[in-house]
Amino acid sequence: MILVVAATSEELRGAGSTRTLVCGVGPVDAAARTARALAAEPPAAVLHVGIAGCRSFAEPLFVIGSEAVYCDADDPRWIELRVQPHAGLVAAARAALPEARVEPIGTSARVGGTDGCEVEAMEGYAVLRAAALAGVPAVEVRVLSNEVAEPDRTRWRMAEAKEQLAAALPSLIEAVAGA
Question: 83-95, pLDDT tens digit by residue?
Answer without folding.
Answer: 999 999 999 999 9
